[in-house]
Amino acid sequence: MTQPQIDELDSQLIEILSKDARTSNRKIAADLGVTEGTVRGRIRRLQKEGLIAFTAITSFELADNTKMAFIGAQVDVDRVREVASRIAELDTINAVMVTMGRFNITAICLFNELDRLHEISSEQILSIDGVHHVETSIAVKTLKYNARIVRITGPR
Questions:
Q1: Residues contacting 19, CB < 8 A, separation 6+
Q2: Is residue 96 located within the same domain as residue 128?
Q3: What residues pair up with 97 in beta bridges, in sequence order?
Q4: 103: which of 7, 34, 70, 72 fits an S-S bond (Cβ 3.0–4.6 Å)?
Q5: CB of 125 closer than 8 Å to CB of 135
Q6: Claim to verify: residue 89 and residue 43 sit in the same structural domain
Q7: Contact criterion met (CB below 8 Å) for 75 and 132
Q8: Residue 120 in domain
Q9: Do both 88 and 37 map to the same domain?
Q10: Which range, of 72-76, 88-92, 127-131, 140-144, averages the lowest pLDDT?
Q11: Same domain for 72 and 111?
Q12: In the prediction, which pLDDT does 155 show?
């Protein structure tokens, strides 16, 4: 996979938009000393290349499921990518990461009922070929969550 090609202007543009995505192209152009057309073209290219996206960040209170769980899975090393892809296909899973340490896959999901969480981890994930062990941790209090970094709630 090739590294995305962004220059200093792209970086400055991304920095401005990450603080306030509603900043007008005209203001951005004035702040950066370029034309509004340059800003518009750069934004279009960054979106097309999947390097930026614009979305509303909803609070947990608006989510259908308001409790968060982390599901760690121990998986056969030669099947990690395959299993991670299968877990990512589950509509109840909001994020999947290949990790190092005790688990080689970690998934994040939002849920409301413990029975539903048990079904996800013990019936759906544990039943995937190559998964040996699943351990679930439930977030009981979130002290810090920076929604600007990563959005974990799916589209409603």
A1: none
A2: yes
A3: 106
A4: 72
A5: no
A6: no
A7: yes
A8: yes
A9: no
A10: 140-144
A11: yes
A12: 40
131 shares a domain with 64: yes
- Asked whether 56 and 47 are in contact (CB, 8 A), the reply is no
Does the residue 53 lie in any domain? no
Helix, strand, or coil here: 150?
A: coil
pLDDT grade for 154, boundaries at 50, 70 and 90: very low
> Which residue carries 């400055």 as its tokens?
12
The identity of residue 84, as a single letter, is A
pLDDT of residue 145: 72
CATH of the domain at 15: 1.10.10.10
Distances (CA, A) of 101 to 10, 33, 107, 139: 35, 47, 14, 20
DSSP reduced 3-state for 97: strand
Q: 66 is written with which tokens?
A: 């308001």
Shared domain check, 101 and 38: no
pLDDT at 153: 46
Question: pLDDT: is 28 or 15 the higher one?
Answer: 28
Which amino acid is present at 71?
A: I
The arithmetic mean of pLDDT across residues 114-142, rounded, is 94
CA neighbor of 16 nearest in space, from 35, 31, 4: 31
- My answer on whether 42 and 64 are in the same domain is no
Q: Report whether 44 contacts 73 (CB < 8 A).
A: no
Q: Total domain count for the chain?
A: 2
For the chain, the straight-line distance linking the first and the last C-alpha, in angstroms and rounded, comes to 31
The answer to whether residue 146 sits within a structural domain is: no
